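Q: Hi! Curious about what Lipid-A-disaccharide synthase looks like structurally. Here's the sequence.
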Amino acid sequence: MKIFIIAGEVSGDVLGARIMREMDDAEFVGVGGENMAAAGLVPLFPMSDLSVMGVLEVAAHAKTLLRRINQTVDAIIKARPDIVLTIDSPGFAKSVIKKLRKMPAGRELIANGLKFHHVVAPQVWAWRAGRAKKYAAMFDKLYAFFDFEVPYFTKYGLDTIAVGHPIADTLLNRRHVRGRGAEDKEKIISVIPGSRMSEVKRLLPIFRDVVHQLAADGYVGYRFVIPTVETTEAYIRQQIKNWDVKPGLVPATARYDLYEKTYIAIAASGTVSAELAMLHVPAIIIYKMNPITTWLVRQVIRVNWVSLVNILLKRGVYPEFLGPAAKVENVMDAVQQLTIPSVRQKMIDELKLADEMWRRPEGTPAALIANSVRSAVENK
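A: Let's find out. The predicted structure is below.
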């Protein structure tokens, strides 16, 4: 069987590689990063071309994205796959499918049984509920992470299954909790600015000011570390040359070892907040977007939190400072609170309550997705 697979960011690249390894009976072509390349994929183009988020950011990269959409459509027509499997990056995925459906060669493939499967359900329970109906019209199957997400899509006829969070099995089984106690001589504060260049550029100045303020306030014995991904490592390395207090850098492949030793994490909103929650790391979540995107999001969002653990537990376990609230003084206050043993322990105890919400008893997400894709091809 031949699968055309597309991942547009680091978390999708990791999951895509796991799916590929579960399907050694399949040929894969498509788009991915270093993890999928290690699993045998020869990417059509750098995955970083798709790692764009925000209204103005997408507009600024419109020419590149359009070129990559056309290139991907041409590659699908040439490859004639059984299934197109897209992982997150919904804007790019939908653009590719729409263009395929407009082209005679694309319509021919669909008439001959080409199916579209998508991994990661959009958070319709948080905002833009109408997307569920659009997904039902666009995709043939959807892989959601959580049970509570499924009914939002099945009511429109979209075959949807919950597969658990992709990183749960790895992280819930490796919590060594080394080096986090207040008695440790060296306490690591991990500052995590995200994986997209646009968010890194926006958040890194805040992290710099926080690091400098902590050092100025006498947080002796603290060490600062930044985990980096392939798309942003060079930029971060160049920027921290000008910092008065220079954090260490570790590659993304070693980030879980870092998190296990982390005393406090200050992190961008996103997948990393789930990773930290699964490892029971006390953390503070911040995020900034350009003012126009921030305003647009505030008009439509329907939930009180952005961190997944807060949403699952329906309370603010991780403090969140978003948009204008992402200020040094707010982060400093939260860091000070997390140095209090009783506050730290309360947060860790609450994080433990979410443990069984992250995974499925019947198998890993990669295995469940691989089995479903294989069954869909066999039943064509």
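A: A fun detail: The two ends are 11 Å apart (CA to CA).
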